[in-house]
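Co-fold these.
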Amino acid sequence: MTNPLAPDWLVLPADVNALDTRVWPRHFERQATGECTIAGVSVRELAAEFGTPLYVIDEDDFRARATSVRNALTSAAESIGTTAKVYYASKAFMSVEIASWINELGLNIDVASGGELAAALASGIEPARIGVHGNNKSTREIARAISAGVGAIVIDSEIEIERIAAAATAQDKIQKVRLRVNTGVHANTHDFLATAREDQKFGMSIADAPALVEKIRSHSHLKFVGLHSHIGSQIHAREGFVEAVSRLVKLHAELSKNGEVAELNLGGGFGINYKPADDAPDIHAFAEAIAVAVKVECQKLGIAVPALAFEPGRYIAGNPGITLYTVGTIKDVNVSDAGAGATRKYVSVDGGMSDNMRTALYDAEYHTVLASRSTRAEPALARVVGKHCESGDIVVSHDYLPSDVAPNDLLAVAATGAYCYSLSNNYNFLTRPGVVAVRAGEARLVIRAETEADLFTRDLRYQANQERVTP
Ligand SMILES: Cc1ncc(COP(=O)(O)O)c(C=O)c1O
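Predicted complex below.
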């Protein structure tokens, strides 16, 4: 009997021990013993050494995906006679270690705050390979970016033109800038992620752009390098990009009449597989479709194809990362008004919305498996929930787990490499998990887990009351 609580897209697994290679890191495997390993390191060993929850990154997979998206975008650009700069959108997962991998692999880095800029600079990347975003950069952030020598700053409002010009003038530098425009294109994605709709905070309208670019050009310490657009995230259909390209190239052509416009930055947003039911597009075909759209529009308008730029984030960081959790409590909840057989197994783990906000924030769907052992048990409809005082504290809303899942089992949740660590928080005073990179049988701690002491380093009364603190 099918469980009426199971959504239509959720497929009953033929084998609860099977791993879908399109979702898991490239080197995540189940061994003959039943236990999963990642890049040759057993999940039990990881849990024993570093504790859970734990973010684990398959480093070679991260590097391979960064290289593959860079190659896809640069070769698509070459096929239309131009070049492409590929920026890693570091908001997906930023740490100095990650930024140094990106640097080694020859990608550029996009940052959205002074903190992300500090991390990028600490990695040793040449500042000219950093792009700076943000709809409300502080004057301090702007001054720091200019003095560091960042490649380009994306202007997001009219006010910023004066602010960036004033900072560049004060430092007697000529700062390259882009203008973020809101194309109004609705990418097929969740509402909150669709950053190019008109009724939202990012960018300026296409109609206002020509006057703003004139204003930028009137400042001798600013150099306008081109338009920037980001139409949303987790995009699976190319139509949104193609439509945005058509609108942007028209504007690009108009702006070219009054001066050079060297580049066109189309942002990120390439979708990935979070769960077996997803069908993310092949990045090479996707990149080619975008490049062809650029070429066709440029030909129509009789202009030269500009240099392109892209900012993939989750495509690089998402699938190489998993989160390991330890199961604590389990309840079978019978949802009587949903019909016969409507039972859901609530599996509580030792983390939750503090290490994965995306389920609560975007109704994101994740996939999980029992990772510490295999089983012959039947699949049961399950919901993986955290330990926070919030009923929306859900990590995996809909999936099947073996019906014999038990306390102390380890669960692995797939594709948590992007926007989980970076959105992590201390709600309910939970400590944030550590991050481990695994490669060729070796596990390396990249970010240590927070301790209870870390939670109180800024609480001055706690520091004053040290003698009352119980061990
Ligand atoms: C301006 C900009 N560029 C790039 C990205 C990266 O998007 P994704 O991680 O979906 O590729 C974002 C995400 O919000 C963004 O706002």
